[in-house]
Amino acid sequence: MTGANGVGKSSLLRTLAGLVPLKEGGISLEGGEDDRTAFEHSHYFGHQDAVKPALTVLENLTFWQAFTAPISADVFPTEIHKPADALEFLGIGHTARLPAAYLSAGQKRRLSLARLLVSSRPIWLMDEPTSALDRHSEAQLLGLMNAHLDRGGMIVTATHTDLPLNSIRTLHLEAPQDVRIVGELA
Amino acid sequence: MTGWALSLFRREISLAVRVGGSAMVGVLFFLAVVTVIPFGVGPDLNLLARIGPAVLWIGALLATLLGLDRLFQADREDGALDLFLMSGRSLELLVLIKCLAHWMATGLPLVIAAPVLAIFLNLEPVAIGAVTLTLLVGTPALTLIGAVGASLTVSLRRGGLLLAVLVIPLAIPVLIFGVSSADAAIHDPVPFMTPFLILCALTLITAVIGPLASAAALRFSSD
């Protein structure tokens, strides 16, 4: 999903995540668990990291693993990492016992990303996923995203840079023309 | 279902007792309010004994309000509230567990401190027991009512003041029956059980209405 700043990329993602009420229409998911809504099939990876500075890195991740209701393996078979393994995989294993307050912005981002690896959900909603990541972590993230796509998962992401993913369909958002005209008149 | 509930409870307790948590602040504030009253009303021991239960209850009410504004706001600011809403867990149950953990961390210390502070106010042993018992039963209701206010003001930057204005009128019934059952224990002719059972009922009612109302308010706050 591409488009200029303020055109509504994040709002669209938050709507898909069930966080913004729909004005009209509906969101439904084919082939998911029947008794769950579309957003309960989704991981949301937004600008905020949902990391508590007072808890240790491992405590943060273990909580989200226990708290997030996973989608059953019949619907979406995938590999689920243990929290400590996910941290190790993302290169922040050495910080596991530290309070999350000591992490840098990029490390917090990686901790937040680890959330997607420890519980299984087929849809990833990602808002500018590469922000605050260094080049190495960015490549690793793209590897994870491609692996998720290869397993049959779906990713909806807002981005300003070209992401080299295996199968891409681009949705370009633009502000409606008449809004601009009203703006000029005013 | 018990797994996620337990880990949420444990997380909330850890957050409350660690650096930046609100567990001890409430008790210290309670201590400050109760010790300041005798300086205000003068050293009349009979008067202090008479108003003692009311002072302890008002102190507990104010101390409970103090920590409540962060109940959901902290989770909203770091994005955790969004994930709560998408988690597929019952939001009502989540609110109830958060309230329970919040009460264990901030309300229970008030109940434990109350007998000690009651001595400052020249309360008799029977009165001390009665006030402590009513606080034990009544402070959960204050937390649960406060949770509704906390979720209504969750998106406001300085919501704490508005929270107090919203919550205090709703907490008045709890205050009335809490103080009157403590008074009833001291003055013999009035039965203790009648106001005390109403206080118990108020707590049970808020345990149902509080989480429902609070969860509804949180759903509306999310956009």
UniProtKB/TrEMBL annotation, chain B:
Membrane-crossing residue ranges in chain numbering: 21-41, 47-72, 93-120, 126-148, 160-180, 192-218
Membrane topology annotation: Multi-pass membrane protein
One Gene Ontology term from the biological process aspect of the record: cytochrome complex assembly
Pfam families per the UniProt record, alphabetical: CcmB
Keyword Membrane: yes
GO CC term (a single one): plasma membrane
GO MF annotation list: heme transmembrane transporter activity
Assigned keywords, A-Z: Cell inner membrane, Cell membrane, Cytochrome c-type biogenesis, Membrane, Transmembrane, Transmembrane helix, Transport
Major location category of this protein: membrane
Keyword Cell inner membrane: yes
Subcellular compartments: Cell inner membrane
Family: Belongs to the CcmB/CycW/HelB family.
General function of this protein: Required for the export of heme to the periplasm for the biogenesis of c-type cytochromes.
Protein name: Heme exporter protein B
Species: Roseibium aggregatum
